[in-house]
């Protein structure tokens, strides 16, 4: 990886800069500094995770978006020994807090602003139910999680089947390019809120972005207030109807199980290693809550 970073810096003429490892999650990122001042973020994509055409689609969408604070790309795709590298403008700030209504309000506003540019046709993933939670899901198969019992899998499958029916009935025209991973760790906060990491942008229903925003907060006691905050932010930009609000829980369930698949299939990630223990039980709890609400037990 050090050789890849060195070659990427040379290709951009950044030979007087110093790379500092940031993290490995889905991809590997480095902060690029000059005289100890951070200037850029270098993202090195996991091998075979994206094609050049898909990466070009991501950058084209980002360049087309106006009026949204984001970490803008400053390079094209660099193929360094089979690793696809992209440099982005560095955004100074902090990751926002979890379970904070003001944060969710602002993420809702960002999502609505992004959805104004949802009609572009690009080579990007389709975030269908099958691609999110199927046996050949793009993030892996959640069923292979070793924390789950046979009964746990039955509970999740039952909840997913109900969600699938509700989404089929929903069938909203509010569909197109979405960020698809607009969660707390992909927001930078200073005096403004910035969206980062468009690596998972693709095609889905707009309301899938509320599910992404609530990642790792699905079981919060404050979940209803957090959802309401996101809705308020979104409606500062674009109106929603009752059907949009009602379908949110189904997408939240799908997202939780998609994350379970990701946690199950990315055990080499340091980030995943830190959250993996107990994630199966939390996912089952989300499914149980969803079933109870669907059957009006709660």
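-> sequence recovered:
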């Amino acid at each position: 990886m050090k050789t890849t970073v060195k070659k990427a810096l040379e290709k951009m003429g950044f030979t007087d800069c110093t790379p500092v490892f940031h993290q490995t999650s889905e991809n590997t990122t480095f902060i690029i500094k000059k005289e100890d001042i951070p200037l850029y973020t270098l993202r090195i994509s996991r091998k075979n995770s994206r094609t050049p055409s898909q990466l070009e689609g991501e950058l084209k969408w980002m360049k087309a978006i106006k009026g949204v604070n984001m970490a803008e790309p400053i390079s094209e795709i660099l193929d360094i020994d089979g690793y696809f590298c992209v440099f982005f403008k560095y955004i100074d700030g902090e990751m926002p807090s979890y379970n904070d209504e003001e944060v969710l309000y602002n993420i809702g506003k960002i999502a609505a602003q992004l959805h104004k540019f949802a009609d572009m046709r690009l080579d990007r993933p389709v975030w269908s139910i099958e691609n999110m939670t199927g046996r050949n899901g793009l993030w892996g198969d959640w069923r292979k999680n070793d924390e789950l019992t046979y009964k746990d899998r039955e509970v999740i499958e039952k909840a997913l089947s109900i969600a699938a029916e509700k989404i089929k009935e929903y069938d909203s025209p509010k569909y197109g390019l979405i960020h698809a991973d607009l969660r707390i760790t992909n927001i930078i906060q200073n005096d403004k809120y910035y969206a980062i990491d468009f690596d998972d942008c693709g095609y889905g229903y707009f309301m899938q972005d509320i599910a992404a925003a609530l990642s790792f907060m699905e079981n919060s006691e404050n979940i209803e207030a957090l959802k309401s905050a996101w809705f308020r932010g979104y409606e500062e930009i674009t109106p929603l109807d009752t059907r949009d609000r009602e379908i949110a829980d189904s997408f939240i369930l799908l997202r939780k199980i998609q994350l379970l698949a990701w946690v199950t299939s990315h055990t080499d990630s340091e980030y995943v290693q830190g959250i993996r223990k107990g994630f199966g039980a939390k996912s089952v709890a989300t499914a149980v809550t969803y079933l109870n609400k669907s059957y009006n037990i709660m």
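The chain is about 45% helix and 15% strand.
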